[in-house]
Amino acid sequence: MYVPLFASDPDVIPMYLAVFAVMTAVWCFLGHVLLKWPPLVAKVERYGHYVLPVVLIAIGLEIPSGFFSH
User: Which positions ≥6 away from 12 have C-beta within 8 Å?
Assistant: First the structure.
């Protein structure tokens, strides 16, 4: 999500935006398909509110240490 903001070559920003839009649509579609599967729906409804904060915190911790450190 941050790549278009930090792109050094303005000519490639449309490509970044297109890839971002397509991949966002793919992930949304996969989420929609997976949550139509009854056994998974039951698990998400039961444990989702516990798992989501852990996942978001892990992503937040990984971004500074993994993606932008060279």
Answer: none
What does the pLDDT look like over 1-53, one tens digit per residue? 555 566 677 787 788 889 989 999 999 999 999 889 888 889 889 998 999 99
Q: Closest Cα to residue 21, out of 45, 3, 8?
A: 3
Instruction: Spell out the domain ranges in the chain.
Output: 1-34, 38-70
* pLDDT score, position 54: 95
Q: Ramachandran region of residue 69, left (φ > 0), alpha (ψ -120 to 50) or beta? A: beta
Question: Using an 8 Å Cβ cutoff, are 34 and 40 in contact?
Answer: yes
